[in-house]
Amino acid sequence: MIVRRAAAVRGMPEEHRPTAPLVARDERGLREIAGAVHDLWFLLPDIAYDAAAGRVTIPMTHEEKRRGWFGIAYWTGGEVPAGVLTFDAVQSFRVIDEAQIDTYNVSSLVVDSLAGGGVRITLYGGIPIELHVIADRIVARFDPAPPP
After folding, report:
1. Which residues, including other chains, have CB under 8 Å from residue 34's CB and lie 6 or more apart?
2. Distance of alpha carbon 133 from alpha carbon 56, whole angstroms
3. Distance separating the N- and C-terminal Cα atoms of the chain
4. Is residue 133's pLDDT more than 50?
5. Where does the pLDDT of residue 67 fall: very low under 50, low under 70, confident under 90, or very high at 90 and above?
6. I need a labelling partner for 146 at 20 to 30 A (CA). Which of 27, 80, 82, 115 fits?
7. Mean pLDDT across the stretch 4-12?
């Protein structure tokens, strides 16, 4: 099953950003999280995988819209904290990094059931990268950053 956001936005407008944590224990909840993190950015070196605790933590940032000369809007890079995406009940974590540039945005989340139980949640980036989370079950959380 592919979990994607219907409309892509650059760093989710402030009025649509979640203000309370989003928790997913099923595919429906993961869809909500996918919508919240779509087009957010992360740095590969900032991802933490704690194998003993079974947890993957991904700090997210978003692009900031600014006004320039004559009121023309432009987007800056992913520099404003947007929140933290966490996966629990993780058995293994693997990164396939084709571009090797360290900074990526979230394009989609894909959930697959595994033979013998468990799930594989794959985060795909707009720039070629895949983060594979193999877990006992879907346990994900997105904690949005407080407003500036």
Report:
1. 3, 4, 5, 108, 109
2. 8
3. 35
4. yes
5. low
6. 27
7. 37
Between vectors from CA 27 to CA 23 and to CA 28, what angle results, nearest 5°?
Answer: 70
State the pTM of this model: 0.82
| Run of H or E including 134 | strand 129-135
H-helix or E-strand spanning residue 36: helix 27-37
Strand pairing partners for 57?
48, 86
Burial of 18 (0-12, 13-18, 19+ CB in 10 A): middle
In our burial notation (b when 16+ CB lie closer than 10 A, e otherwise), range 29-43 reads: bbbbbbbbbbbbbbe
pLDDT of residue 148: 65
Fill in the amino acid letter for 34: A
As given in the structure block, the two tokens for residue 79 are 């520099």
- SS3 assignment, position 98: coil
Say if residue 49's pLDDT is above 80. yes
- Pairing type for strands 90-97 and 73-87 reads unpaired
